[in-house]
User: Fold this.
Amino acid sequence: MHTAKKNTIDWNSPDALEQLAQHIRNPLQSIINVSKSSTACDPKNIEKILFSSSKEINDIVEDILAKVRTNTLSLTYHDRPDIFHIYESNENVRKMCTGELQPQKVAKIDQNWLVGLEREVYGNINQEYLDLNELSYKMAVSERQLHRKVANLVFLTPNKYVRILRLHRARQLIDSYVQQSVSQVAYTVGYKDVHYFSKLFAEQYSISPKQLLGSFR
Assistant:
Protein backbone atom coordinates (compact mmCIF):
# COMPACT_ATOMS: atom_id res chain seq x y z
CA MET A 1 0.00 0.00 0.00
CA HIS A 2 1.27 3.44 -0.92
CA THR A 3 1.20 5.83 2.00
CA ALA A 4 1.74 9.56 1.96
CA LYS A 5 5.22 10.53 3.06
CA LYS A 6 6.10 13.31 5.43
CA ASN A 7 7.48 16.33 3.60
CA THR A 8 11.21 16.41 4.47
CA ILE A 9 12.41 19.26 2.29
CA ASP A 10 15.27 21.23 3.79
CA TRP A 11 14.12 24.74 2.85
CA ASN A 12 17.45 26.24 3.96
CA SER A 13 19.45 24.07 1.57
CA PRO A 14 20.82 25.51 -1.70
CA ASP A 15 19.19 22.59 -3.56
CA ALA A 16 15.74 23.10 -1.99
CA LEU A 17 14.16 23.59 -5.42
CA GLU A 18 15.61 20.29 -6.62
CA GLN A 19 14.29 18.56 -3.48
CA LEU A 20 10.87 20.11 -4.11
CA ALA A 21 10.80 18.83 -7.69
CA GLN A 22 11.73 15.32 -6.57
CA HIS A 23 9.12 15.29 -3.79
CA ILE A 24 6.44 16.22 -6.30
CA ARG A 25 7.72 13.85 -8.97
CA ASN A 26 7.52 10.72 -6.79
CA PRO A 27 3.78 10.85 -5.98
CA LEU A 28 3.07 12.14 -9.49
CA GLN A 29 4.79 9.06 -10.92
CA SER A 30 2.62 6.86 -8.67
CA ILE A 31 -0.50 8.51 -10.06
CA ILE A 32 0.75 8.05 -13.63
CA ASN A 33 1.63 4.39 -13.04
CA VAL A 34 -1.69 3.48 -11.48
CA SER A 35 -3.57 5.32 -14.22
CA LYS A 36 -1.80 3.24 -16.87
CA SER A 37 -2.51 -0.06 -15.12
CA SER A 38 -5.99 0.80 -13.84
CA THR A 39 -7.69 -2.07 -15.70
CA ALA A 40 -5.57 -4.68 -13.92
CA CYS A 41 -5.69 -3.25 -10.40
CA ASP A 42 -8.14 -3.51 -7.55
CA PRO A 43 -10.34 -0.35 -7.68
CA LYS A 44 -10.00 0.06 -3.91
CA ASN A 45 -6.21 -0.08 -4.12
CA ILE A 46 -6.24 2.43 -6.98
CA GLU A 47 -8.35 4.79 -4.89
CA LYS A 48 -5.93 4.51 -1.96
CA ILE A 49 -2.90 5.22 -4.14
CA LEU A 50 -4.55 8.17 -5.86
CA PHE A 51 -5.69 9.61 -2.54
CA SER A 52 -2.35 9.23 -0.74
CA SER A 53 -0.32 10.51 -3.69
CA SER A 54 -2.62 13.49 -4.18
CA LYS A 55 -2.47 14.23 -0.46
CA GLU A 56 1.33 14.09 -0.57
CA ILE A 57 1.42 16.71 -3.32
CA ASN A 58 -1.21 18.81 -1.57
CA ASP A 59 0.77 18.76 1.69
CA ILE A 60 3.81 20.11 -0.13
CA VAL A 61 1.74 22.88 -1.72
CA GLU A 62 0.19 23.77 1.63
CA ASP A 63 3.63 23.87 3.24
CA ILE A 64 4.86 26.28 0.56
CA LEU A 65 1.79 28.51 0.93
CA ALA A 66 2.11 28.54 4.72
CA LYS A 67 5.76 29.62 4.49
CA VAL A 68 4.91 32.30 1.93
CA ARG A 69 2.13 33.68 4.16
CA THR A 70 4.47 33.88 7.15
CA ASN A 71 7.41 35.16 5.09
CA THR A 72 9.62 32.26 6.24
CA LEU A 73 10.31 30.91 2.77
CA SER A 74 13.50 32.37 1.38
CA LEU A 75 15.14 30.35 -1.38
CA THR A 76 18.55 31.40 -2.56
CA TYR A 77 19.33 30.57 -6.16
CA HIS A 78 22.99 29.87 -6.73
CA ASP A 79 24.03 30.71 -10.28
CA ARG A 80 26.15 27.76 -11.36
CA PRO A 81 26.50 27.02 -15.06
CA ASP A 82 24.52 23.95 -16.16
CA ILE A 83 27.51 22.84 -18.20
CA PHE A 84 29.37 22.11 -14.94
CA HIS A 85 26.72 19.66 -13.76
CA ILE A 86 26.38 18.14 -17.23
CA TYR A 87 30.15 17.63 -17.42
CA GLU A 88 30.37 16.12 -13.94
CA SER A 89 27.47 13.71 -14.44
CA ASN A 90 28.01 12.61 -18.03
CA GLU A 91 31.04 10.64 -19.17
CA ASN A 92 30.10 11.06 -22.82
CA VAL A 93 30.21 14.85 -22.46
CA ARG A 94 33.57 14.67 -20.70
CA LYS A 95 34.94 12.78 -23.69
CA MET A 96 33.80 15.58 -26.01
CA CYS A 97 35.95 18.12 -24.17
CA THR A 98 39.53 18.66 -25.27
CA GLY A 99 40.69 19.17 -21.69
CA GLU A 100 39.68 18.47 -18.09
CA LEU A 101 37.12 20.93 -16.80
CA GLN A 102 37.65 21.86 -13.15
CA PRO A 103 34.64 23.98 -12.07
CA GLN A 104 36.22 24.91 -8.74
CA LYS A 105 39.04 26.66 -10.59
CA VAL A 106 36.78 28.74 -12.85
CA ALA A 107 36.62 32.32 -11.60
CA LYS A 108 33.23 33.63 -10.46
CA ILE A 109 33.22 36.30 -13.16
CA ASP A 110 33.68 33.58 -15.80
CA GLN A 111 30.96 31.44 -14.21
CA ASN A 112 28.60 34.41 -14.41
CA TRP A 113 29.53 34.85 -18.07
CA LEU A 114 28.75 31.19 -18.76
CA VAL A 115 25.40 31.52 -16.97
CA GLY A 116 24.58 34.49 -19.21
CA LEU A 117 25.61 32.53 -22.29
CA GLU A 118 23.39 29.61 -21.26
CA ARG A 119 20.44 31.95 -20.83
CA GLU A 120 20.94 33.25 -24.36
CA VAL A 121 21.10 29.71 -25.74
CA TYR A 122 18.04 28.54 -23.79
CA GLY A 123 16.13 31.64 -24.81
CA ASN A 124 16.55 30.75 -28.47
CA ILE A 125 16.72 26.99 -28.16
CA ASN A 126 13.78 26.32 -30.48
CA GLN A 127 15.65 27.91 -33.39
CA GLU A 128 17.15 25.39 -35.77
CA TYR A 129 20.26 27.51 -36.30
CA LEU A 130 21.78 29.72 -33.63
CA ASP A 131 23.73 32.53 -35.26
CA LEU A 132 27.07 32.62 -33.42
CA ASN A 133 27.69 36.15 -34.62
CA GLU A 134 24.42 37.30 -33.03
CA LEU A 135 25.16 35.25 -29.92
CA SER A 136 28.58 36.86 -29.56
CA TYR A 137 27.02 40.30 -30.03
CA LYS A 138 24.60 39.64 -27.16
CA MET A 139 27.52 38.51 -25.01
CA ALA A 140 29.45 41.69 -25.88
CA VAL A 141 32.36 39.85 -27.49
CA SER A 142 33.48 39.21 -31.05
CA GLU A 143 32.74 35.84 -32.63
CA ARG A 144 36.44 35.03 -32.45
CA GLN A 145 36.47 35.89 -28.75
CA LEU A 146 33.38 33.74 -28.24
CA HIS A 147 35.18 30.74 -29.73
CA ARG A 148 38.28 31.41 -27.65
CA LYS A 149 36.42 31.99 -24.39
CA VAL A 150 34.20 28.89 -24.67
CA ALA A 151 37.25 26.81 -25.60
CA ASN A 152 39.25 28.14 -22.65
CA LEU A 153 36.47 27.76 -20.09
CA VAL A 154 34.80 24.46 -21.05
CA PHE A 155 37.12 22.98 -23.71
CA LEU A 156 34.43 22.89 -26.37
CA THR A 157 33.65 24.66 -29.61
CA PRO A 158 30.57 26.92 -29.40
CA ASN A 159 28.65 24.56 -31.70
CA LYS A 160 29.36 21.52 -29.52
CA TYR A 161 28.55 23.56 -26.43
CA VAL A 162 25.17 24.62 -27.86
CA ARG A 163 24.42 21.04 -28.92
CA ILE A 164 25.12 19.73 -25.42
CA LEU A 165 22.76 22.32 -23.93
CA ARG A 166 20.05 21.50 -26.50
CA LEU A 167 20.22 17.82 -25.63
CA HIS A 168 20.36 18.61 -21.91
CA ARG A 169 17.13 20.58 -22.22
CA ALA A 170 15.63 17.71 -24.25
CA ARG A 171 16.49 15.33 -21.41
CA GLN A 172 14.84 17.67 -18.92
CA LEU A 173 11.66 17.78 -21.03
CA ILE A 174 11.49 13.99 -21.12
CA ASP A 175 12.31 13.54 -17.42
CA SER A 176 9.62 16.06 -16.42
CA TYR A 177 6.93 14.52 -18.65
CA VAL A 178 6.55 17.84 -20.51
CA GLN A 179 6.53 16.30 -24.01
CA GLN A 180 4.82 13.11 -25.13
CA SER A 181 6.74 12.21 -28.31
CA VAL A 182 10.28 12.27 -29.66
CA SER A 183 9.30 14.65 -32.46
CA GLN A 184 7.80 17.13 -29.95
CA VAL A 185 10.99 17.09 -27.90
CA ALA A 186 13.17 17.46 -30.99
CA TYR A 187 11.21 20.43 -32.36
CA THR A 188 11.17 22.15 -28.96
CA VAL A 189 14.97 22.16 -28.78
CA GLY A 190 15.49 23.19 -32.39
CA TYR A 191 15.87 19.92 -34.31
CA LYS A 192 13.68 19.47 -37.37
CA ASP A 193 15.37 16.19 -38.32
CA VAL A 194 14.07 13.78 -35.66
CA HIS A 195 16.36 10.93 -36.74
CA TYR A 196 19.43 13.16 -36.42
CA PHE A 197 18.21 14.41 -33.03
CA SER A 198 17.76 10.83 -31.79
CA LYS A 199 21.28 9.92 -32.95
CA LEU A 200 22.86 12.86 -31.12
CA PHE A 201 20.75 12.24 -28.00
CA ALA A 202 21.85 8.60 -27.85
CA GLU A 203 25.50 9.63 -28.27
CA GLN A 204 25.20 11.99 -25.30
CA TYR A 205 23.05 9.85 -22.99
CA SER A 206 23.71 6.26 -24.14
CA ILE A 207 19.96 5.75 -24.57
CA SER A 208 17.62 6.81 -27.34
CA PRO A 209 14.92 9.40 -26.55
CA LYS A 210 12.32 6.85 -27.66
CA GLN A 211 13.59 4.32 -25.12
CA LEU A 212 13.72 6.95 -22.40
CA LEU A 213 10.17 8.10 -23.10
CA GLY A 214 9.02 4.48 -23.12
CA SER A 215 10.55 3.87 -19.68
CA PHE A 216 8.08 6.37 -18.18
CA ARG A 217 5.03 4.72 -19.71
About this structure: Confidence is low (pLDDT under 50) at residues 1-5. DSSP finds eleven helices and no strands in the chain. The longest helix spans residues 43-69. The CA atoms of residues 117 and 139 lie 7 Å apart.
